[in-house]
TrEMBL record:
<dbReference type="InterPro" id="IPR002123">
    <property type="entry name" value="Plipid/glycerol_acylTrfase"/>
</dbReference>
<keyword id="KW-0444">Lipid biosynthesis</keyword>
<keyword id="KW-0012">Acyltransferase</keyword>
<keyword id="KW-0443">Lipid metabolism</keyword>
<keyword id="KW-0378">Hydrolase</keyword>
<protein>
    <recommendedName>
        <fullName>1-acyl-sn-glycerol-3-phosphate acyltransferase</fullName>
        <ecNumber>2.3.1.51</ecNumber>
    </recommendedName>
</protein>
<dbReference type="InterPro" id="IPR004552">
    <property type="entry name" value="AGP_acyltrans"/>
</dbReference>
<dbReference type="GO" id="GO:0016787">
    <property type="term" value="F:hydrolase activity"/>
</dbReference>
<dbReference type="InterPro" id="IPR036412">
    <property type="entry name" value="HAD-like_sf"/>
</dbReference>
<dbReference type="Pfam" id="PF12710">
    <property type="entry name" value="HAD"/>
</dbReference>
<keyword id="KW-0594">Phospholipid biosynthesis</keyword>
<dbReference type="Pfam" id="PF01553">
    <property type="entry name" value="Acyltransferase"/>
</dbReference>
<keyword id="KW-1208">Phospholipid metabolism</keyword>
<comment type="similarity">
    <text>Belongs to the 1-acyl-sn-glycerol-3-phosphate acyltransferase family.</text>
</comment>
<dbReference type="InterPro" id="IPR023214">
    <property type="entry name" value="HAD_sf"/>
</dbReference>
<dbReference type="InterPro" id="IPR006385">
    <property type="entry name" value="HAD_hydro_SerB1"/>
</dbReference>
<keyword id="KW-0808">Transferase</keyword>
């Protein structure tokens, strides 16, 4: 049974997906997405401003002027250029390389986790139809570039910034800004250059300044619209959809989260103790994992909706793969697998005050992602555990993903399975990042959806085609997330 509260499961958002999936195929159909407020919740520039304030490299007056300007109506290109002159002072004198690196860091840590799951699924649906997908924003490439890469979007329209003879930013825009009529003009130019038929194309935006932009295509949609755009959409007969926002964290959620961790540690200690009394350390570990998982999920108000659970038990030992989104994944794994597994994790977790001691008890293989030789050596005990009948759990991305899209998969998990002669079993977590975002500490109640895919036999794999094989497994995750079992 699927979660009835899943954001994309019904209503206008589901109709958007259905419309895309029934639309003509091919690159002549464009899909133009605004960024701030449409693909992500909030405004990416604020992540940059917070960073600069934390590092004392921006004047408070500039921040206050930015905030004040942001509260004013920016209806025209000229309004936006004046706003940009204020915010641009922050970046004057910096190199594009500095800002690219900062943009990637902020996307990973702050901006990426605010991507709307509904927007991600819409992007995936357009890509599957072979449409020409474009991130069209008045933001800079330092803001939209990392998002486009993570979402698999090839094309971007953005505000270019002027670079002086010394290779440093002046703080001024370079050319026309894609804002208001400027964005409409940029879309028309792009369509002409890429043979995109605007009459059959799609566009999505949240701001009333984007009415001209939306009007360039035959299939516009107002997404999370401002009051002005909502009125314009009603007048023009455009579809309107509101994506579900991130849940709010209050005292109840804080208390639940504290109870969650207490339940995890208390349940694990109790189970381990009972097992040791019975004379079996492994039985104690298994009992502790299951009891700790159950109590922590109960305290957090999180339940599991699992498709294909029988695959967990049919082919053990195995290397279980999971797409890593947040710390909630650890609790889900305990409640899902129950025991008889050992984790593989990055070495930084060994010193985590909450999970470190627990993971050492679970005989975790800690690997240094920056040292390939050490990583291979650290996996040797995991091979022995697999050969002794104990499964291994690993996040093939090596770190938490910033968006619902899994990042590139590393090959270690697959080498491990090949060496031990066991299958890999993909565990696809759909929405742990929605209930607990990437760097958050607070867990929100809800239903975590999990799809356990059939075991994959890797006995015939070899080094020559390993990259292609690994990418095919990652594609299984993307396909499952875009077409959830029981919903299509």
């Amino acid at each position: 049974m699927s979660d009835p509260d899943a954001p994309i499961a019904g209503g206008a958002a589901a109709q958007l997906l259905e419309d895309v999936r029934n639309s003509p195929e091919g690159p002549q159909v464009g899909a133009f997405f605004d960024f701030d407020g449409t693909v992500i919740a909030g405004y990416s520039v604020m992540a940059f401003m917070r960073h600069h304030l934390r590092n004392f490299d921006v004047h408070l007056s500039t921040t206050l002027k930015t905030l004040a300007a942001g509260t004013q109506k920016l209806e025209t290109e000229e309004d936006f250029r004046k706003f940009l002159q204020i915010t641009g002072r922050t970046w004057a004198g910096r190199t594009p390389e500095e800002l690219e690196q900062l943009g990637q860091q902020l996307f990973r840590d702050e901006i990426g986790p605010s991507v709307y799951p509904e927007a991600w699924r819409l992007v995936r649906a357009h890509l599957e139809r072979g449409h020409t997908v474009v991130l069209a924003s008045s933001a800079t490439r330092f803001q939209v570039g990392p998002a486009a890469k993570a979402l698999g979007i090839e094309h971007t329209l953005y505000t270019a910034l002027e670079v002086d003879a010394d290779g440093k930013l002046t703080g001024h825009p370079d050319g026309r800004t894609p804002y208001g009529e400027g964005k409409a003009a940029a879309v028309k130019d792009f369509a002409a250059a890429h043979q995109v038929d605007l009459d059959t194309s799609f566009a999505y935006s949240n701001g009333n300044e984007d009415v001209p932009f939306l009007a360039t295509v035959g299939r516009p949609t107002a997404v999370n619209p401002s009051g002005g755009l909502r009125r314009a959409a009603a007048e023009r007969g455009w579809p309107v959809v509101d994506f579900a926002g991130r849940p709010w964290s209050g005292p109840v959620e804080v208390a639940r989260t504290a109870g969650t961790y207490a339940g995890m540690m208390g349940g694990f200690a109790t189970g381990l103790g009972l097992g040791l009394i019975g004379g079996s350390r492994r039985a104690g570990l298994n009992m502790g994992i299951g009891l700790g998982g159950d109590l922590s999920l109960l305290a957090s108000g999180v339940s599991l909706d699992v498709h294909g659970a029988h695959h967990i038990w049919d082919s053990q030992p195995a290397v279980f793969l999971f797409n890593h989104q947040s710390q909630l994944d650890v609790l889900v794994l305990g409640g899902l697998l129950r025991g008889n597994f050992a984790p593989v994790a990055k070495k930084e977790l060994a010193t985590n005050p909450l999970f470190g001691p627990l993971m050492r008890l679970l005989e975790t293989a800690f690997i240094d992602r920056a040292d390939n030789a050490q990583a291979r050596k650290a996996l040797e005990p995991a091979v022995e555990r697999l050969r002794s009948g104990v499964s291994v759990v690993i996040a093939p991305e090596g770190t938490r993903s910033a968006t619902p899209s899994p990042g590139p998969f590393k090959k270690g998990a697959f080498h491990l399975a090949m060496q031990a002669g066991v299958p890999v079993i993909p565990l696809v977590f759909r929405n742990t990042g929605e209930l607990m975002s990437r760097n958050a500490m607070i867990i929100h109640p809800g239903v975590v959806q999990v799809a356990v895919l059939p075991p994959i036999d890797v006995s015939g794999w070899d080094a020559e085609d390993l990259d292609e094989r690994v990418e095919s497994v990652r594609q299984l995750y993307l396909d499952t997330l875009a077409h959830w079992p029981g919903e299509d």
